[in-house]
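Slides due. Your pick:
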Amino acid sequence: MASSSVPFDLSTRKDWRGAFAALGRLLSNPNDTTQVFRIMRALNAGTPKAGYERLLRSAEGGRIAYQRVELAERLSDPAYVARFPAGSVGAAYAGFLGETGYSADGLAAVSQADDAGRAAEHPYAWFARRTRDAHDIWHILTGYRANDPLGEACLVAFSYPQTGGLGWAFLAVGSGLKALRSRHRKLAIRALWEGYRNGRRAVWLAGQDYERLLAEPLEMARQRLGLSKPVAYYALQEILREVGGGTAA
């Protein structure tokens, strides 16, 4: 990843006005993912610092921080992604990329569209990038689909207790308010709450060695990390398939 002369913002001040403006634009156009990162910047101030310091306190965190692998670079290399055995987290990730057309460098480009500070050479900036670049791996591990509004909303709810970032909580509440207008609002709200509970119960995913994790059998990884099956989410997905599609969030 190219270095940046733009300093990483170390402020812990929250920008609620900016967050509400970005949420309004996102609700009007769910495909405008730039607004997600604006909300993160507005409300997650201080979260990368707390996460990085927690990483250093973990058993493997010192080594992971010292090596400072840029996940976007690794995950954007087709040869690297193709190396993992069938049934592994990495193989599931490769299938995910083929199914969705997403890419790690594409996500990085969107996040940096108006925030050059994310590329800064700073430990907290690196941890923020690492959390961002693991987002699609979290989709694989949790079972929440990425090309589905409810799946994204449930992963947002899961991410709040995992990261402690208020931006995730803000997005989850926004998704819940939107879900209240849907035909299946009770089950949609239940799925969002389930995502939050699953995030609280699971092992701290940001502290994982992702290169080792990608090589691990998917179901074994889920069991080791304490990742519960999203029952309410799957139930609503089945209902939507039976009625011919649609969205619940």
Observations:
- The two ends are 34 Å apart (CA to CA).
